[in-house]
Amino acid sequence: MLHYFLSHRREVVTRRTVFELRKARERGHMLEGLAVALANIDDFIAIIKSAPTPPIAKTELMARGWDSSLVREMLTRTAEGATVGGIEAFRPEHLPKHYGMQPDGLYKLSDEQAQEILQMRLQRLTGLEQDKIVNEYKDIMTHIADLLDILAKPERVTVIITDEMTSVMNEYGAGNKDVRRSTIELNATDLETEDLITPQDMVVTLSHTGYMKSQPIAEYRAQKRGGRGKQAMATKEEDWIDQLFIANTHDYMLCFSNRGRMYWLKVWEVPQGSRNSRGKPIVNMFPLQDNEKITVILPLSGENRTFPEDHYVFMGTSLGTVKKTPLKDFSNPRKAGIIAVDLDEGDFLIGAALTDGEHDVMLFSDSGKAVRFDENDVRPMGRTARGVRGMNLEEGQQVIALLVAENETQSVLTATENGFGKRTPITEYTRHGRGTKGMIAIQTSERNGKVVAATLVETTDEIMLITTGGVLIRTRVSEIREMGRATQGVTLIAVEDGTKLSGLQRIVETDLEEPDLEQSPE
Fold first, then answer.
1. I need a surface site. Which of 21, 242, 346, 366 has the fewest CB within 10 A?
2. What is the rounded CA–CA span in Å between residue 448 and residue 412?
């Protein structure tokens, strides 16, 4: 075994030396050309200036023989040395004989050398730069001689192997004690349940009465706007789907309740169910208090899993209060939950989003009004703070959505309880100071009813619409026409008698190759 190891190391050292020798010869060849050019710099400049084109200048430089005492002296010294092969050993492999130092003492430039000279900057002509070229040429010649000596003497290869192994022993060895650094165990693999979970996108649903489940997103296919939809969850008469979210099985979720508390959960911990199943009561996942339910779920994927200090959780309440808290304040959640925001009597949390301090925030009320302001208008606060005024509401009005604008190319999709909605460019929502009553987002006529949802979308996105009867429809945003803020919108979903639209959720993933699309009239 030791014999084969030493044979392998000898081959490694030899191949490495041959590689370094090839590179050193190539570099030495280039430096020879530069040294020749410096020794005849006036003639070189005259030829280059008089030549009409660079190729002609290169040809003329290669056609002449050039005198360089430095190059001739260095090559003569190597030829007189004990190096095997003499002066030829310092030439690059496969270099034709008519290039380099000739028997008459003159030097003929190769194509590569002439090209390098033409590309040489004028700063290389200074005295200091000339000295650098000369010194580097001398050093490279010495290095080539050393590499040739290693290849010619096997005992030098042995010395190199010994030195390298000694260096490894000194760096990683345990000295004379020879203490083992590894331990032998019966089972060195420590698998967690999460290691056995396949990463995939899931649709997480939460009903109004607190039933939660997850389903693979592939179970839903796109339909045309105004379709009847597909049953997403079996619900009782007094229950409906209240929350829907798309996340990966390995993502973390920050689950915020209407009481202003936060709970920590991973997507794979949510029980899977079929489309017709109700799911699992969320009270079995979190120790919820009386009249408390989860209203917002935020996935923490990528860099957000480390809770960076320059990221925040921006929250909004139904009475128009907003609050910005550093994300790191939520890095140590307890099983019983932690306080995210301290709420006033009769107020509850309606939205939360992750920000980095450089976004605009938008609040939408059920009366069809919206306000947009810079998130820096709200200073960072602790978890137990109450926040500041974000939107001025009239009596009986409530905030129904909190949005964080990513860029000016997005649109705002608003939906009303009677199944109508529209898509409006975000640029039509101008920035104002926080605490104002806002501008018109959509007309809340008798046909439309109150606004129930608002979200930011791109034309390539898809959305899922949820009714109070448990019906879900998935449609493409591109099928919803862009309209102004003061319009009433178009039909998004045909709601049945006795049911209303309860909300919508944007989906980034699309099924562009889905051939089977259900169509229905508007």
1. 346
2. 17
- Cβ-in-10-Å burial (0-12, 13-18, 19+) of 150 comes to buried
Angle between helices 69-80 and 2-39 (to 10 degrees): 150
Closest CA to 330 of 346, 350, 314: 314
10-residue mean pLDDT series, the chain (522 residues): 89 93 90 86 88 90 86 70 66 85 86 87 72 85 88 90 87 62 64 81 78 81 55 51 75 88 89 82 84 83 81 93 93 84 90 90 92 92 89 90 86 91 91 87 85 88 82 86 86 87 68 40 39
Sign of CA dihedral 165, 169, 175, 177: negative
Which are the contacts of 42, defined by CB distance < 8 A and separation ≥ 6?
none
| Distance between CA atoms of residues 398 and 322, nearest Å | 13
Burial (CB count <10 Å: 0-12, 13-18, 19+), residue 149: middle
Distance between CA atoms of residues 97 and 126, nearest Å: 32
Three-class SS of residue 127? Answer: helix
Contact at 8 Å (CB) between 442 and 452?
A: no
Decide: 366 and 270 in contact? Cβ < 8 Å.
no
Where is 256: in which H helix or E strand?
A: strand 252-257
Which token pair is 200? 């995939």
CA 428 to each of CA 71, 463, 482, 485: distance values in angstroms, whole numbers, following the listed order = 74, 22, 11, 7
Q: Which helix (H) or strand (E) holds 356?
A: none
Q: CB-based burial of residue 98 (10 Å sphere; 0-12 exposed, 13-18 middle, 19+ buried)?
A: exposed
Task: Indicate the pTM of the whole model.
Answer: 0.54
Question: Quick one: tokens of 516?
Answer: 């089977």
Q: What is the token pair recorded at 400?
A: 């129904």
Number of Cβ within a 10 Å radius of residue 513: 5
3-state secondary structure of 218: helix
| Cβ pair 308, 239 in contact under 8 A | no
Nearest to 326 by CA among 380, 373, 280: 380
SS3 494: coil
Can you read off the two tokens belonging to residue 168?
A: 């490894």
Q: How far is CA 102 from CA 106, 208, 504, in A?
A: 6, 93, 84
CB 354 within 8 A of CB 313: yes
The first and second tokens of residue 47, run together, are 């030829």
Gap between the Cα atoms of 74 and 72, Å rounded: 6
Report yes or no: 270 and 214 within 8 Å, Cβ to Cβ.
Answer: yes
Distance CA 332, CA 23 (A): 55
Residue 28 sits at φ, ψ, to 5 deg, of -65, -35
Q: What pLDDT shows up at residue 321?
A: 94
Q: How many CA atoms lie within 13 A of 192 on its CB side?
A: 5
